[in-house]
Structures are given as C-alpha cells and as structure tokens.
Write a structure and sequence with these properties.
The chain has about 250 residues and is of the alpha/beta class. The chain is built from 8 helices and 12 strands. It has a 6-stranded mixed β-sheet with strand order 6-7-8-3-9-10, with helices on both faces. The protein has a 4-stranded antiparallel β-sheet with strand order 2-1-4-5, covered by helices on one side. A two-stranded antiparallel sheet has the order 11-12. α4 packs across α5. The longest helix has 18 residues. The chain is globular, with a radius of gyration of 18 Å. It starts with a strand and ends with a strand. Bound molecules: adenosine-5'-triphosphate (ATP). Adenosine-5'-triphosphate (ATP) binds next to α1.
Length: about 250
Amino acid sequence: MIIKNLTLSYSADKILLRNFSKELSAGSFIALVGRNGVGKSTLLRALAGVSRCAGGDVLYGEKSLYQMRNSELSRTIALVTTEIVQSPNLKVEDVIEMGRAPYTNWSGSLDKEDKDIVNQAIETAGISYLRGKEIDRLSDGERQRVMIARAIAQQTPVILLDEPSAFLDLPNRYQIVMLLAEIAQSEGKIIIFSTHDLQVALRFASEIWIMTPKGITAGSPEMLRATSSFNLIFEDTALKFNSITGEVEF
Ligand SMILES: Nc1ncnc2c1ncn2[C@@H]1O[C@H](COP(=O)(O)OP(=O)(O)OP(=O)(O)O)[C@@H](O)[C@H]1O
C-alpha cells in the first residue's frame, strides 16, 4: 500500500495533515498515536477510502482506493470503528457473516466456504462462547471482538481499526492487540490501529506513527524511543516520556 502526498482537512483554514507519504509492506502492524482531535480517525477513514482526502492518493497495488468500486474496496480494506452496530435480534454470527458480503452473490447467501471462513474467524477471535448471542446484549469488549472477527472474515489484505482497545480491560487490551499482531505477521496483512495506549504500542507494534499538528513522525518503537520522539505527544503539557523506562512522568 502506498500513501502519496496525503493531505487531510475539513476546511481551508484547518489542515490536519499535509503531504504525508509512506510505503507500507505486508506484515506491518502499525500503531497510530496522537492527542485527541489531532486527526487519527480522519486519517484512518481516508486510508480506508471511506472519506475523500483533500489531496494526494492512496494506492493498493497499482490502483487508487478512490477509483475502486465499493465491492473491490471492501475486498481490499476492512475498517473497524467503535461505532455500535445495533439491531434487535441480530446475532453474533449474523454480524460476522456480513464480512462475507463482498464475496457473496446478489442473493447474499453464504456457501459452505463462506461459512467455514466465518467459523474460522469466530475461532481466531476467540469468541466461540458468544455464538447465538444477540449483538446488543454484549458488553463493549465482547462487541469489539465480534467486529474484529467480522474484519477477519472479510479477508482483506489491509485492516484499519479505530481505537480497538478503547473499551477493553487490561487483559483484553493486551489479548486483542496480540491477536492483531499475530494476524498481521502470520497472514502478511497490513494492520493499522489507533490507540492512546503508548505501552501497548511500544510493546507490540512493528511501527508507530506519532501524529501531531505538525505531521506524522514514523518509525520502529526502538527508534522512536531512542530519539525521545514520544515527547512530541506531550508538548505543551507538564508530562514527559521517559525513554529509558517507557513511563510517562510528571
Ligand atoms: N465530519 C467532520 N467535519 C468537520 N470537522 C471534523 C469532522 N470530523 C472530525 N472533525 C474535526 O477534525 C479534527 C480531527 O478529528 P478526528 O476525529 O480525526 O481526531 P482523532 O485524532 O481521531 O481524535 P480522538 O483521539 O479524540 O478520537 C477534530 O478537530 C474534529 O473536531
């Protein structure tokens, strides 16, 4: 995937990101960090081809995401947001089966292969125990896992997740991020997730993008640590990132 001179803005007087370029390779597990309102969700939506960017392009293969038809786009990129899918009587399996929509025929019916893929996604996401449950009766953390299973079932080479660990308790947070890291590595997917959890990013990401109003500083956790780059996030605050201990200090 190639990001070319990406510029993001909602209005002429507020540019969130200017001319960002980056080439991403298969197997990358990227944590996107930055302060509230800096533009992480906007960036993920632009990379998902959901919202148009103000300038630049995002290519998968040779093709711009913005030129892809919806069916092709949804076979290329899965976007997992914290938006809540709510519909009475909708079961966990129904939601995960929606991940197969880009592959099913006009009737939307799933064949055996689709069903096997859905079952495998349920297994991988570790949510077999949620089978048969209604989606609006799940906890936030359980629902988040279901949405990840849906993205897995979508079988896209790129998965983007907006704060996948936002609602999760500590063990679940680590488990979800470890699961995503494992999928990125074993299946050679590009996975980008936004997070406010620096510890998780440092521990599991292969690369971290620090987004500030001045742009994105990208690098391996080790490199960013060595260059004290995390302090970019704490500019204008009384906090400081200790690159030796990896802790935030007053
Ligand atoms: N649809 C929109 N129209 C206009 N401005 C928007 C729109 N969506 C977001 N913004 C603004 O763009 C900026 C970036 O928002 P965005 O949601 O991308 O930030 P974020 O980094 O994901 O924040 P958070 O960490 O709080 O989720 C914010 O100032 C926000 O108010």
